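Query form — protein Acyltransferase family protein

QUESTION: What is the three-dimensional structure of this chain?
INPUT:
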Amino acid sequence: MTTSNRLAWLDALRGIGALAVVAEHLLPWVYPPLRPTFMNIGMYGVVVFFLVSGYIIPASLEGRGDVRAFWTSRLFRLYPLYLVVCAIALLVGLWVPIREQVPRDASGVLAHVSMLLDVVHVGGLADPMWTLSYEMVFYLVVTALFVKGVHRFSGWYAVAFGGLAVAAGIVIGAPWLPGPWPAVVSGVVFVAGMAGLFSGRFQTAAALVLGVMAVVLLIGSSYVPWFGAAILAMMFTGTAIYRWEKGTGPLWPVFAAAVLVAVSPAWAIAAGWWWVQPPVWITTLVLAGATFWAGRALRHRTWPRVVVWLGLISYSVYLVHHPILRMVPILFGHMMSKPVWERALLAAGYLGVLLLVSWATYTWVEAPAQRLGRRLVRKRQTSPAGWPPNGSSSSSSNWPSSSLPSGAAGGSG
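ANSWER: The structure tokens for Acyltransferase family protein are given below.
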């Protein structure tokens, strides 16, 4: 079986997740009765993304065995398109006001620089950017665990974050670290920490500082701390599944963490959304988990090319879809004032434009940036001075780094 076939199921899951998020935002504009109420279809897609990230990101780091190579790949994977979408959102802001949750000061700028938006209670220029906050927290935590050589206890971390989600929900109702300074300080520390990660001398210290900072922000400064901890539990659950597959970890933490995540909003102070009420929340989690397990069960099958292609452009679809959607009423008027057939035509046209734009941004922004990142890694690794891995070579996974996909949710979504 070729590498592309082995990993096609991950691309397929990313494509499914991206389309679910698009449907969550599009259906209320087109025909609200089609939006399910027994589950949150957008959160379903996001949970699928988080499970995929949890499954593949630690494998990518361990497969490379080199923190600098991993972060070169991550930065060139995430930031080019992210910056383009920031520019698009600012341009759309000429017609549609930018959300009031986006500060018009240094805290807003630095929160976008670090991507730690949601965990420093700052809104993103594009609504879907909030998930990138948790992707970044996960990367920072995983890197810190890796440099200390304690990264293989993924199941325990999943259970620990699940328990933290339950406890945080009971105790914390609002950020303990309010105001703009968490975004400012974390932005500065993030930039300095990235410089440290790419240095040989301060790499371990930088990784530990960034990892600790990420957890402190997750619990002390995020919009909803229990939710952030639950997301980290989901992601480490994906990692625990990977460990179990490779025979390096048990399966029971997956079920324990799932139960803790499922009950985490039950007694939470900040749990007023309709989609975190037990029937909806649990249904959403079960369906997302079932989708991940179904994809894994079918991983040896040949997936339809269109599904895999949707996975390849899923990061673009995820980030680009909302700014484009905000322009639809500007160009065509309020959709709900139109007959159903006209709304259906507009929705079909929107999806066509979205896929075309996403293909273009993948082709001309994402793919070239990823190729550049890979060239830089190869250049450093083959240079006369060398670029010896700073991680333990014994920690490498069973997948060689060349066989790993370029990202998950956005590594997301």
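ADDITIONAL NOTE: Residues 16-380 form one domain.
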